[in-house]
Amino acid sequence: MAEFNRASLEELLKKRFFFAPSFSAYGGVAGLYDYGPPGCALQANILDLWRKHFVLEEDMLEVDCTIMTPHDVLETSGHVEKFTDWMVRDSQSGEIFRADHLIENVLETRLEGDKKAKSTDTLSATASKNNTKTKKGGAVPVLLDSATKAEYEEILAKIDNYTGPELGEIIKKHNIKNPETGGDLTDPVEFNLMFESSIGPTGSLKGYLRPETAQGQFLNFKKLLEFNNDKMPFASASIGRSFRNEISPRSGLLRVREFVMAEIEHFVDPLSKDHPRFDEVKDIKLRLLDSSIQSEGKTEPKELTIGKAVEEKIVDNQTLGYFLARIQLFLTKLGINPQRLRFRQHMSNEMAHYACDCWDAEIQSSYGWIECVGCADRSAFDLTVHSNRTGEKLVVRESLPEPRVYEKTVLDINKRIFGPRFRQNAKTLESYLLGLSEAELEKLKSDIESNGGKATVNLPNGNSYEVGSDFLTIGRQTFTEHVREYIPNVIEPSFGIGRILYSLIEHVYWTREGDEQRAVLSFPPRVAPFKCLLVPLSNNAAFAPLVRDISSRLRKLNIPIKVDDSSNSIGRRYSRNDELGTPFAITIDFQSTNDGTVTLRERDSTKQIREPVDVILDIVKELVEENTTWKNVMEKYTTFVRQELD
Ligand SMILES: Nc1ncnc2c1ncn2[C@@H]1O[C@H](COP(=O)(O)OP(=O)(O)OP(=O)(O)O)[C@@H](O)[C@H]1O
């Protein structure tokens, strides 16, 4: 098989209109793409499988929330302040780069140059390692000393973890410039990725195009819990467009400014993150690049069953582990090569402060290892912050089988003395005292007791007040609870559909050797944009009734077909549909008009069988629904040979 060539694949995707830059007549806009018919069908099939694999299989509650989101929601979620990337500018040309991506690109090219230098002997003795450029021609062969090489490898392994100033230091230390022009770069500055807008004519209500679908799900939590008859755990799910004003989108569909996401929010009791169906997946092996491997600067994942990974606490809990395994099953069902799939754990400084564990499903393509699904345990963060901001309780209330009796240190304030004594400061002091933890109350109690009934409290606003036992009583009290109230934790698998779609295309793309190399996209039948090609041998009118009859029967079976009755040779028509990834082709020839038999060709093997139409339609249905395989069919029926040459 010929070596992978991205330019040829891109040419094919353009020619067959899988997708193309939007508004190209106006010069196009980086990071915006339109999908053509096969791209649309492929995306619809991926989403269909996603719905079946997750929403139906797990009884998830699907919601469709608005894209336009008010400022306050995204301020509360932290996006207004923190949804940023670091950007640098070429101080001469003004060209803009995302700082971490630029460093990654330059260091990878230098390492590639080192490899080339070792293998080719073309080392230029005068070239400095800092001259290595990412020109289209590729890396300049320049040897690196072992310490520099190790340092580059370590930076690359930790590239997602650096702060802006740290990225700036790396740029200076390793003399990183604009790879195309050699221009100097400015210090990194933070750039918020959300598209801002205003809602309504007055312009007073600020809003954003959502950068993820999650917030709508959190804000519907109460209604969803009620819909689920107050039963926990449960998951919501949402498919929809998200928007990110990416600093410098240069990797095709992998980094765009508008994309389809499919997200799940699985709400779980923080005291028990076991999953009732974990046993079903526990023996599935995953390639795990955990944080300890990365902190050693290594990139080789370890292969482990998810059962073992959870048992050894490499993956924090069963629910998170369950979803990692289910994500792998989904991706491989689509046709992603399992050897080019790994799960990378976030390092602690890469993870949001509230998250307790986070893994990315990364898929390898010609762009490197790219995160296609993020899977995070977000603890109770989202529901807590929205609840605090709005005053709406986002909690689960569960009747306890046995009442819970417990003791607690509590504070009682005699308001008749407290109010007049502290007057305008009474409210602030009261809310401070009521917010003290049990341990803080115990400390205050002992301070008061050891100080002759008085103690000084220092408020965060800098004011100090003297409090005493004449109006404060601190002591243990017994409580009986019949209901447990808690804020659920959230486990969030978040899928970027465009990234999965593009990676899948790379994984199933190959070229058939022959007189000329012909491209094939070997999509599994269930995701292939078109399932069956219908080709009359020529445009002879005698074939028309059979074409009409078979196509209408295939449509009745809900099998998406393409009829190709063009005057091209049969071989040319087969190969055009191999490029679309159409797995099966029914051919009508002169024998068909005599005896009612047709042939069925399979895309990857190009093998054909000949049977009566009824039999062939049954076989196609079984194949498309993946109830049988071509191998099984070949074992049962005799091969038919057709000349496919042009
Ligand atoms: N600009 C984008 N273009 C296409 N898909 C994206 C983009 N940004 C994120 N995604 C997809 O959405 C998923 C969830 O988003 P998440 O916020 O976890 O990504 P991220 O960590 O910001 O990604 P990255 O670090 O690559 O920018 C990702 O796994 C990815 O598949």
Automatic annotation (TrEMBL):
Belongs to the class-II aminoacyl-tRNA synthetase family. Keywords: Aminoacyl-tRNA synthetase, ATP-binding, Cytoplasm, Ligase, Nucleotide-binding, Protein biosynthesis, Transferase. It is found in: Cytoplasm. Pfam families: HGTP_anticodon (PF03129), tRNA-synt_2b (PF00587). This is glycine--tRNA ligase. Residues 114-135 are annotated as: Disordered. SUPFAM superfamilies: Class II aaRS ABD-related, Class II aaRS and biotin synthetases. Homodimer. It comes from Paraglomus occultum. Gene3D superfamilies: 3.30.40.230, 3.30.720.200, Anticodon-binding domain, Bira Bifunctional Protein, Domain 2. GO terms for cellular component: mitochondrion. InterPro entries: aa-tRNA-synt_IIb, aa-tRNA-synth_II, aa-tRNA-synth_II/BPL/LPL, Anticodon-bd, Anticodon-bd_dom_sf, Gly-tRNA_synthase/POLG2, GlyRS-like_core, tRNA-synt_gly. One of its GO terms (molecular function) is glycine-tRNA ligase activity. Its EC number is 6.1.1.14. Residues 208-529 form the Aminoacyl-transfer RNA synthetases class-II family profile domain.
